[in-house]
Amino acid sequence: MTIIGIQVLGVLFAGFMFYLTFLHQRRNEFTAKETLFWFGTWVAFLLLVIFPTTLDFFIKGVLGFSRKLDFFIVLGFMFLLGILFHTYIIMRKTQNRVEKLVRHMAIERKKK
User: Fold this and answer.
1) How far is 18 from 9, CA to CA, in rounded Å?
2) In terms of Cα–Cα distance, which of 51, 75, 71 is closest to 61?
3) According to DSSP H, which parts of the chain are helical?
4) Contact 51, 43 (CB under 8 A)
5) Integer Cα distance of 84 and 87 in angstroms
6) Helix (H/G/I), strand (E/B), else coil: 67
7) Which in 4, 33, 43, 53 has the greatest CB count within 10 A?
């Protein structure tokens, strides 16, 4: 098995992301669960980059995609839409908290 250029780039990317995850964990910006999730994600990514034919049977045989790229494009869109929805929910919760806080502060100022 020979490693092609895109695989080298993928390995470098995974290494960089491992480093960033480690830095955020050291700064206590990630919980233990978050750190494990991201390390697991980068390990899975690294394995798929090094062994790209691992998912061939599942993608082509079980799911019926003729090309792996089609599968990853669909998966990528699903992931991005999920992240977008999650971010929207967090933003709305934060917006509601700010509105409640501003109302509370306005009522307190009016009482004085």
Assistant:
1) 14
2) 71
3) 5-26, 32-50, 56, 68-111
4) no
5) 5
6) coil
7) 43
Return left, alpha or beta for 51; rule: phi > 0 is left, psi -120 to 50 is alpha, else beta. beta
* pLDDT tens sequence for the chain (112 residues): 566 888 899 999 999 999 999 999 999 999 999 999 999 999 999 998 888 888 888 888 888 888 888 888 888 999 999 999 999 999 999 999 999 999 999 999 988 7
Q: Which two tokens stand for residue 25?
A: 């964990």
Q: Which two tokens stand for residue 2?
A: 């020979």
Amino acid residing at 91: M
3-state secondary structure of 94: helix
